[in-house]
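Researcher: Good morning. I'm working through a list of sequences from a screen, and I'd like to move beyond sequence-only analysis. For each chain I'm collecting a predicted structure so we can compare shapes side by side. This is the next one on the list. No need for commentary yet; just the structure.
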Amino acid sequence: MHLYEVLRRPLITEKSTVLQAESKYAFEVAVEANKPQIKRAVEKSFNVTVTGVRVMTMPGKRQKVRGREVSPRPWKKAIVTVKPGDKIGFFEGV
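Model: Good morning. Structure tokens for this chain:
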């Protein structure tokens, strides 16, 4: 998997903005990605030093569509911890 395919989008929620004070950033990543791939992708994309990666698989929420229950696919979330003093400029000012 190419490094630019690993990161899908940043997650900007209330919880993730609170985590930014601790130098932690949240991303939606490819389901096939593993921790070393996520670490390399963040380091190369944002030019920071990653000290830790935590990964969790989020289940799809069941919804009713036209009388049927539909379950979207599960997705993967990664919380990346960067070295103190490093910042990802993409998240700043949000």
